[in-house]
Amino acid sequence: MRKHFAVAALAGALLLAGCQTTLPSLNLGTAVTLNTIYGIENAYGVAVNAANAYKALPLCSTGTVPSANNICAKRSVIVNLQAAIRRAQVAVNNAIVFQRTYPTVDVTNVIGAARSALLDVQQILASGAQ
């Protein structure tokens, strides 16, 4: 039952992200607008959901790779994903705090940092399919 739920959750997260063909991938650029604080917050939520769905998959056996017939998660990708999610959380929180503290200052640079951190998460998820 857990495996079915995990696969369904991953499929749902990927469909929300606009990716239907490549299993563990995420295109945040088309899923949400990444140029506002609200867009960054939404992108972080989508990225966390996709990461959690990926981590919920059964681990790949030694010597196997994920495929359409072998849906599994690589251990190395999970480790990299956890670190990337932590970095993204810090960057997104910093952007939110900066925008609330200085509402009249341009937030382009802090949004750019958060965007970069979220795109790192996207790239790590994409590497899980290879």
Keyphrases for this structure?
130 residues, mainly alpha, 5 helices, elongated, disordered N terminus
Kindly estimate the percentage of residues that lie in beta strands according to DSSP: under 5%
Oligomer: single chain
Major sheet size, sense and barrel closure: none
Low-confidence stretches: 1-24
Number of structurally distinct domains: 1
What is the averaged pLDDT score?
A: 77
Describe the 3D structure:
- There is one protein chain.
- The chain has one domain.
- 65% of the residues lie in helices and 0% in strands.
- It contains 5 helices and no strands.
- It is elongated.
- The model is unreliable at 1-24 (pLDDT under 50).
Outline:
The protein is an all-alpha fold and 130 residues long. It has helices spanning 2-16, 28-31, 37-55, 75-101, 108-127. The chain is 65% helix and 0% strand.
How are the SSEs placed, and which strands pair?
Blueprint lengths: L1 H15 L11 H4 L5 H19 L19 H27 L6 H20 L3
